[in-house]
Specification:
The protein has helices at about 20-30, 60-65, 90-100, 130-140, and strands at about 1-15, 35-40, 50-55, 70-85, 105-115, 115-125. The chain is of the alpha+beta class and about 140 residues long. Strands 2-3-1-4-6-5 form a six-stranded antiparallel beta sheet.
């Protein structure tokens, strides 16, 4: 397994028709590529949409998107990306390492997949990404 750190945009927006269109339009017009995206409606408040985006330029993306009327909040968040073989049981091996080290997970999602490899984004909830990287590197 290989580990590295990326920055994602965590966006809270009004859950209104066209918000994702506006986000993708602003980023596209700014020459910023969306490399990974997860979007969902808050289960407790259906008026709020949550988006997590990995882009080619998170700082500029944040500046551009924060001007949108329907955006409630944007944060830049460090995430851990794990490149692993794409075969049964690999995610479990990773999560077992997290469990043994006492690392709690806030979010996890797939960033990319090929025939041989999968890359998974993880946001730890109780430790910084740098600390988690250090702990995982010691286990190698």
């Amino acid at each position: 397994m290989e580990y590295y750190k990326l920055t994602e945009l965590s966006i809270l927006a009004d859950n209104k028709f066209g918000v994702l269109y506006e986000i993708s339009s602003i980023l596209g017009q700014s020459g910023i590529n969306i490399e990974a995206i997860v979007g969902y409606v808050d289960s407790r408040d259906k008026s709020i949409a949550n988006f997590r985006l990995v882009t080619t330029d998170p700082d500029t993306a944040m500046k551009k998107l924060s001007k949108m009327q329907n955006i409630k909040n944007i944060d830049l968040i460090d995430i851990l990306v794990v490149k692993m073989e794409d075969k049964p049981g690999e995610l479990n091996k990773l999560i077992e390492k997290f469990k043994k080290a006492g690392i709690d997970i806030e979010t996890v999602y797939l960033i990319s997949k090929t025939k041989k490899y999968a890359e998974v984004a993880i946001k730890p909830s109780n430790l910084s990404v740098d600390v988690v990287l250090s702990l995982l590197e010691k286990e190698k």
